[in-house]
Design goal:
The complex is a heterodimer of chains A (1337) and B (193). By secondary structure, chain A is mainly alpha-helical. In chain A, helix 33 runs parallel beside helix 35 and helix 48 runs parallel beside helix 50. Chain A starts with a helix and ends with a helix. Chain B has 193 residues and is of the alpha/beta class. Chain B has two domains: 132 residues, Rossmann fold; 48 residues, no CATH class. In chain B, the strands form two sheets. Chain B has a five-stranded mixed beta sheet with strand order 2-1-5-6-7, with helices on both faces. Chain B has a two-stranded antiparallel sheet with strand order 3-4. In chain B, helix 6 runs antiparallel to helix 7. The chains are: A mainly alpha (1337), B alpha/beta (193). At the A-B interface, helix 6, helix 8, helix 10, helix 12 and helix 17 of A face helix 5, helix 7 and strand 7 of B.
């Protein structure tokens, strides 16, 4: 079975090998080899290997590097399992080390490393348990040593490819293998199975008597190798080493140093000498080596082996040096040297305290760290940056920082950020050290730096208040203190008793006595800060300047010069507990004039009384709160201080004993107490929060008094800094907010808000910490929003505070923009905001937006958007305000012009698109809006502007949607008034507008056009109007000519337009009154051709004239002009002409009978007679029957003009005669007999009455006989007798038939013309009669 | 010869995940880790961060925060970030516990502290394989905007590294060029597996 298996396997291996050999492509070759690797690593036996290994090894000279690499990997794996093949394998590995491809060489090195280690372990363990070794193992070992030599030569050969890194690492690993591990077990494992694992191999297992290996020899060799490695670093100077090799070397060496403390002493000097700042070798490698070196130092520092201990201070020093170059630190260093202080500045409070003891201190902290345990320390580091803020304040953390000097962000933050601040701090220290004579310069210094910087200085100082004070110094200092201030002591007591007298009502019992003291102590941090500020505050105060400036000095001392001037320092510390007792810092001040007291008292009283009422809790609680609060604020006042205080308390009074216990209460929370004897009261989170909250509240409260006293300006920054220093969930901002908003004006809310916001902004920006910056940002937003909302709601709309605030804050978050939007566009976002918004609010919002646009260019786009949205608001009132802003103020700003234009255009175009697609929906919506609109119009009538009137004008039809259209368009129209060329777009869009939209446009045009006037741009538009805009054009023209005389340019433009493009005569109508008469007459046919309603306009226009000039035409002239129109010649339908006539007759008040008579008189003289003459006559007689005599006159003149020669007129003549019978008989009888006969034939109805008329005795005689014959009154005996009479008639008679035929055709024309005339405005009945008669003929 | 990359920041939420996201999108073989003790996300206040164990699924955090205060967490970008993250992988992983994840060729860290911790961790492991690993620190502020920038820069850097067959020989050059081009300081170190 086994045989079969192995046979199968063999076949398989052979197959893969053959495949790999014959494979063409790299991939398939690699694949086959991968299979082989699998087989060899899983279950290859010795036989199989011995058979195929040579074949496999051949591949190491394959042409492609991946194959070579893989082969090395395979044989390396084989070698690990089967030591006996090493003599075959190792030569290949050695050869591969020189491979041209670094990756292959590296692989070889890596495999070799493993092989070396495993062989070493195997040989060692075999040697331990038996005195004889396998020959094969020995041989393998020999080969491995050869490989080792090869690697060594590689490692120490100059050059810088990837092989060297592995080689160096190999050397380092060999050193580790060859040297005993002090921490590992020195007993070899008891069973052989350990062979498989070599991780925990320890050279110490060999104790001599090993056939091959010798501990001493190997140690010697390791030592030699280490020397070589160190030489690399020592002498290379960066020439033969590149960065990566350098890093590897340093890392390896530090690893060796840590793991083999015996070698620590050899390695450290070299590494320390490498320290870039301490040595002169400033090669490029130094830069690269900086970080690994730093890490190496840290790693080494952690080494707990006693052998490492002596190196620690040098390491600490070197680490510190690595931060060198920081200007601030240098300056500080110098300054401190001036002050006679040697040592490290600014590292940690305790170091500052006892610089000479620094090495001890380093040890000390190290021990402390050890006590807390390494996991703890790493946890502290791992603790992300939440604690960073506070950790910075606790001594423990600062010690840690010091230890890990260059590691932490915190240190770089501490030093880098506060560079100038630290400088200032030391400057203060230096000044203070000079005593009173420097008061003047101090004052100048303080007043010349910004409030922000000052606040930062104060905050920085707090951090540097010492937490630990050397005991041996203490006594001495106390003595010193007493001597210094002994003289003042009486003064203190005097004042304190005086104060207590005043306070006594509120503090009846000694226990309660602690209350004011505690409260004052609570005030203490604040007071200290105040004092730094006092000089400026006093600048206001006048005569007090010098005294209070003196006040500043001592309180300043502890803060700024804790390390520099130890004696003064202690003084101030001693003062601190006394302050509560006395109530005002000035009391503790040396050289203070007594006059100051009177000044100081009132304020103190106020403060302490406030405090007293605030704190009605148990005094114990207060004591805790005191301890906690001052710890928060002045974290470094801690342990030893209380010890220092207790003796002091003895010499003061009971209250200060109380306060000293209070201070001791704060000890536990500090957690770094060297003495655990102090009572420990641990506060839980909630208590701490409460205490912090209370203390901050006090400070804020105190600001109210400061505000009253003036000079709060300088202090605002401090409040902001304090707030930032507090943990966020104490929510100091809420309190500041309340303070600000409780009385925005008198608390100088604007300034304070700004300071707070800038500080928050700075925090958010500067802080790399995700959690912190996110929180600061959100606090910022909430704070600003809250203030802004309150400003909006609490102040009248005319107040400019909001706008000012928003203009000056660091940046505007979205929430604020939203607020503005709500203000400017009420109802757009939240329906429930109602009563707040009135027109004034909108104005306020808009003016804010405007000022933001002007003041904050980055917010322009957003603010502009708000303004624009407001400009299309559905409320008329809002819209008009916004439009005024946009058009008058914003539009002229060149950077905004395009945006505004685009937006307005978009809105304009939206009208055309929306009302087509969803007109219904819009209607519904806008109806609702209209309801709103009408309401608002009702409520605020004064704001309803001219637009509202337009609204009324077009309310006849779907008013709501018109207003909706106007909503969208008014902005654009407003812009048109600013930039006339925009107007063209309206014309372009007009064509695609719905009727509703057009209506809206028409509503706005008059105002717009009147505003624009006849500008050149408008003329340009007029001269070339886009298609489909004639109606609009007409309105524009009408508006332009309405009530004014149009400019000649306008008239000529219109004429040109008419002549060139637009043959539509209606555009001429508006200017008709201003055209010369002859032109009008010339144009008349075209005017007549217009639709009737337009023509009526023409009539009105021409007749009314303009205000300045008389009418162009008289009514008569108009009528005559109409008659002069020749349908055929002018190509105008006859009907148009008759309609025109009818139109004239329709206006009886203009076309009076006099006018008509006049016209007829003139017309009858014309040759030829106008075609419509008889029609007009008929209409005249129809309209004015009283004119019948005049008409008869006309008729008789027609007879004399041989009217019958005009067949059409003849018909009309006869009809007229019929109508006017019997008056017309006279005229008829004037006709020559043939015509009379014709007439009677044509209108038989005439015959009988006419005959009757003629037969009258008084008439008959006057008639010629021929007439009588025609009439049939007389028979025609002598028909031919009066030849002279018939003769002239004969041609007529002959012409008659032809006339009749000629008449037949035009009668068709009249027929055509007549029926429509029925709907003319004239006397219908008659006309229809005429029609019927004409058509009957 | 693709390399394996690891992105490491402190909580495996923002910076490392942004880079992970970007590199994954570009087809890199990439993983991401945090070195902190816990995963911390901003909470309603600085003292109340949301603390999770490594291994807590992003989905879980997402659901929980959305339940707690959707408005707040949307506003400060946490929810969008978690949403992005849960599309990249299941849960945040801790660097110090990643021994089972195999060997990386390049580790990119985004904060010096993290860099130090990675180095320390790598150095404390036994160097068995002798396989060099490049650790680069690219300092990136821990906020959303910077993380996005950092992600882009990381991509550029990794593309550069990917293009060189053997970074060991070229690393100084690559770092130098990158620093000059992007005006960012890089710190790198080499350790071994």
């Amino acid at each position: 079975m086994v045989a079969i298996m192995s046979a199968k396997l063999r076949e398989k291996v052979a197959g893969f090998l053959a495949a790999a050999k014959s494979a063409r492509s790299l991939n398939s070759k690699l694949q086959s080899l991968q299979h082989l690797k699998q087989i060899f690593s899983d279950d290859a036996d010795t036989d199989l290997l011995s058979e195929f290994l040579p074949a496999l090894l051949e591949f190491h000279s394959d042409s492609s590097s991946p194959v070579r690499k893989l082969v090395i990997e395979i044989v390396g794996g084989v070698g690990l399992k089967h030591v006996e093949f090493l003599p075959d394998i190792v030569p290949v590995l050695i050869a591969a080390l020189q491979d041209s491809t670094p990756a292959v060489a590296r692989q070889s090195g890596t495999c070799g490393m493993d092989l070396f280690r495993s062989t070493l372990v195997k040989i060692a363990i075999q040697g331990i348990y038996s005195s004889e070794l396998d020959d094969s193992l020995k041989l393998s070992w020999v080969w491995m040593l050869k490989f080792k030599d090869e690697m060594y030569s590689l490692a120490f050969k100059p050059g810088s490819d990837g092989r060297r890194l592995v080689a160096l690492k190999f050397v380092a690993a060999t050193i580790l293998l060859y040297t005993p591990d002090p921490s590992g077990s020195s007993e070899p494992p008891s069973n052989h199975s350990y062979e498989e694992k070599f991780d925990g191999f320890n050279m110490a297992w060999l104790r001599g008597g090993h056939p091959v290996l010798n501990v001493g020899d190997s140690s010697m060799e390791a030592s030699k190798s280490l020397g070589l490695l160190l030489d690399q670093l020592r002498y290379s100077k960066g020439k033969s080493l590149n960065n990566s090799a350098m890093i590897v070397l340093i890392n390896s060496l530090s690893e060796i140093a840590r793991k083999r403390p015996a070698l620590y002493g050899r390695i450290m000097p070299v590494l320390l000498a490498l320290d870039p700042s301490s040595s002169a070798n400033k090669g490029m490698h130094v830069l690269g080596a900086h970080y690994p070196l730093k890490n190496a130092f840290f790693a080494c520092l952690k080494c707990s082996h006693p052998g490492a201990a002596p190196w620690r201070d040098r390491l600490v020093g070197a680490l510190r040096e690595m931060r060198a170059g920081d200007m601030a630190e240098e300056a500080l260093h110098e300054l401190c040297q001036v002050n006679g202080n040697v040592g490290y500045k600014n590292k940690a409070p305790d170091e500052e305290e006892k610089p000479s003891l620094d090495p001890v201190d380093a040890m000390d902290t190290d021990i402390r760290r050890k006590r807390s345990g390494t996991p703890d320390a790493s946890d502290l580091a791992a603790e992300d940056d939440i604690s960073g803020k506070r950790a910075r304040q606790t001594p423990e953390a600062s010690i840690d920082q010091c230890k890990s000097s260059s590691s932490a962000v915190s240190t770089s933050r501490g030093d880098g950020d506060n560079g100038p601040v630290q400088q200032l701090v030391s400057m203060f220290a230096a000044l203070v050290a000079q005593g009173e004579k420097a008061v003047g310069s101090l004052q100048i210094l303080i007043s010349s730096i910004s409030a922000d910087l000052l606040a930062e200085v104060v905050m920085a100082n707090m951090r540097h208040l010492p937490s630990v004070r050397p005991k041996d110094e203490e006594l001495e200092l106390d003595k010193e203190l007493h001597t210094t201030y002994g003289s003042k002591d009486s003064q203190f007591k005097q004042l304190s008793s005086f104060l207590r007298d005043i306070l006594s009502p509120s503090s009846p019992s000694p226990i309660l006595d602690a209350r004011p003291s505690a409260s004052n102590n609570l005030e203490n941090p604040k007071l200290e800060e105040q004092e730094v500020m006092t000089p400026i505050y006093n600048d206001v105060g006048g005569p007090l300047i010098t005294e209070t400036a003196v006040v500043t000095v001592p309180t300043d001392i502890p803060i700024s010069s804790s390390e520099g001037v130890p004696s003064v320092n202690d003084v101030s510390l001693a003062i601190a507990p006394e302050v509560p007792d006395i109530g005002f810092p000035e009391n503790g001040i040396p050289g203070l004039e007594s006059s100051v007291h009177s000044y100081g008292l009132p304020e103190t009283l106020a403060v302490s009384s406030v405090v007293g009422t605030d704190l009605e809790d148990a005094s114990q609680d207060q004591a805790i709160s005191l301890g906690r609060s001052s710890q928060e604020r002045i974290p470094s006042i801690s342990t030893d201080r209380s010890e220092e205080l207790s003796p002091k308390a003895v010499c003061t009074d009971a209250t200060s004993i109380n306060s000293s216990t209070a201070t001791s209460l704060r000890l536990p929370s500090q957690l770094v107490l060297p003495k655990m004897s102090a009572p420990v009261i641990s506060l839980d989170g909630e208590q701490m929060d409460n205490i912090q909250k209370m203390s901050f509240m006090r400070i804020v409260e105190a600001y109210k008094h400061i505000a009253v006293a003036g000079g709060s300006q300088v202090r605002f920054s401090l409040l902001a800094y304090l707030g930032v220093a507090l943990p966020l969930d104490v929510d100091p901002w809420k309190m500041v907010e309340t303070h600000v908003l409780s009385d925005y004006m008198s608390h100088q809310g604007h300034e304070l808000t700004l300071r707070v916001l800038y500080k928050l902004f700075g925090e958010a920006e500067a802080n790399a910490d995700f959690l912190y910056s996110t929180n600061a940002t959100s606090v910022y937003e909430m704070f600003l929003l809250k203030v802004a909302e309150t400003l909006r709601d609490a102040f009248p709309a005319s107040d400019k505070s909001l706008s000012r605030l928003l203009g000056e804050v660091p940046y505007l978050p979205k929430s604020i923009l939203k607020l503005l939007e709500c203000l400017c566009c009420p109802g757009n976002n939240d329906k429930d905001e109602k009563a707040v918004h009135s027109g004034d609010r909108v104005t306020q919002g808009l003016s804010t937006v405007w000022s933001l646009i002007l003041l904050r260019p980055p917010t322009r786009d957003v603010c502009l958007k708000i303004a624009l949205q407001s400009a299309v608001h559905h409320l008329e009132e809002v819209r008009m305000k916004a439009i005024r802003l946009v058009a008058n103020k914003l539009y002229p700003i060149s950077s905004l012009t395009q945006n505004i234009e685009d937006y307005a255009k978009e809105m304009l175009i939206s009208v055309t698109s929306t009302d087509k697609t969803n007109a219904v929906g819009l209607n519904l919506e806008s109806q609702k809006e209209h309801l709103n609109a009408s309401v608002s119009e009702g409520t605020v009538p004064k704001d309803v502007s001219s637009d509202a009137h337009q609204l009324n004008t077009c309310e006849s039809s779907s008013l709501s949607s018109v207003s909706e259209m106007q909503r969208c368009m008014s902005l654009y129209f407003a812009l048109c008034t600013k930039k006339h060329s925009l107007f063209r777009e309206v014309f372009v869009v007009y064509n695609s507008m719905s009727d509703v939209a057009r209506q809206a446009v028409h509503g706005q045009i008059p105002i717009l056009v009147r505003t624009i006037g006849t500008s050149s741009q408008l003329l340009e538009i007029i001269s070339d109007p886009p298609t489909g805009s004639v109606n609009l054009l007409m309105q524009v023209l009408q508006t332009l000519t309405d009530g004014t005389v149009p400019s000649p340019e306008l008239i000529s433009t219109i004429r040109k337009l008419y002549d060139s493009n637009l043959k539509d005569a209606q555009i001429l109508i508006p200017v008709l009154p201003f055209l010369p008469k002859h032109e009008v007459l010339l144009l008349f046919p075209h005017l007549v051709n217009l639709p009737l309603d337009k023509f009526q306009g023409v009539i009105t226009r021409t007749l009314q004239g303009s205000s300045q000039s008389s009418p162009v035409l008289t009514p008569g002239e108009v009528l005559i002009a109409i008659h002069k129109v020749d349908p055929e010649r002018d190509g105008i339908p006859l009907k148009k002409v008759t309609d025109a006539c009818n139109a004239c007759f329709g206006q009886g008040q203009i076309f009076t009978q006099q006018v008509l008579a006049e016209v007829l008189n003139q017309l009858v003289e014309q040759i030829p007679l106008p075609m419509l003459f008889m029609r007009t006559v008929l209409q005249t007689i129809g309209a004015y029957p009283s004119l019948v005599d005049f008409i008869m006159n006309i008729l008789s003149r027609l007879v004399s003009k041989q009217i019958w020669k005009y067949p059409k007129l003849w018909v009309g003549f006869l009809r007229c005669a019929l109508m006017t019978k019997p008056q017309s008989f006279g005229v008829l009888l004037q006709l020559p007999p043939p015509q009379l006969e014709n007439a009677m034939n044509k209108t038989p109805a005439l015959k009988a009455p006419l005959v009757a008329h003629a037969s009258q005795p008084n008439i008959q005689p006057t008639l010629p006989r021929s007439v009588l014959v025609v009439l049939g009154i007389v028979s025609d005996p002598q028909a031919a007798s009066p030849t002279e009479k018939t003769q002239p008639q004969s041609p007529t008679a002959e012409a008659q038939p032809s006339d009749a035929t000629a008449e037949a055709q035009p009668s068709g024309a009249t027929e055509e013309a007549q029926p429509p005339s029925a709907d003319g405005s004239g006397s219908e009945a008659e006309k229809s009669k005429e029609t019927s008669t004409v058509s009957n003929m | 010869m693709t390399k394996r990359y690891a992105m490491v920041c402190s909580s495996n939420q923002n910076r490392s995940m942004e880079a992970h996201f970007v590199l994954k999108r570009e087809g890199f073989d990439v993983a991401s880790y945090g070195t902190g003790a816990h995963v911390k996300l901003p909470g309603p206040s600085i003292r109340e961060p949301n603390v999770y164990e490594f291994g807590t699924p992003y989905k879980h955090m997402f659901d929980e925060l959305r339940r707690k205060d959707p408005e707040l967490y949307k506003r400060n970008g946490i929810l969008p970030m978690l949403k992005r993250n849960l599309g990249v992988k299941t849960a945040p992983q801790r660097w110090q516990d990643n021994a089972a994840d195999g060997v990386f060729d390049v580790v990119i860290t985004f904060e010096e502290k993290v860099f130090d911790m990675v180095m320390e961790d790598l150095n404390s492991r036994d160097h068995i394989l002798m396989k060099p690993v490049l650790v680069i620190n690219l300092e990136v502020k821990d906020n959303h905007e910077e993380a996005a920038t950092g992600g882009r820069l990381t991509l550029v850097l990794c593309q550069e590294l990917e293009a060189t067959e053997n970074w060991v020989d070229k690393i100084d050059e690559i770092i130098f060029n990158f620093e000059r081009q992007h005006r960012r300081k890089l710190v790198y170190s080499i350790s071994f597996y």
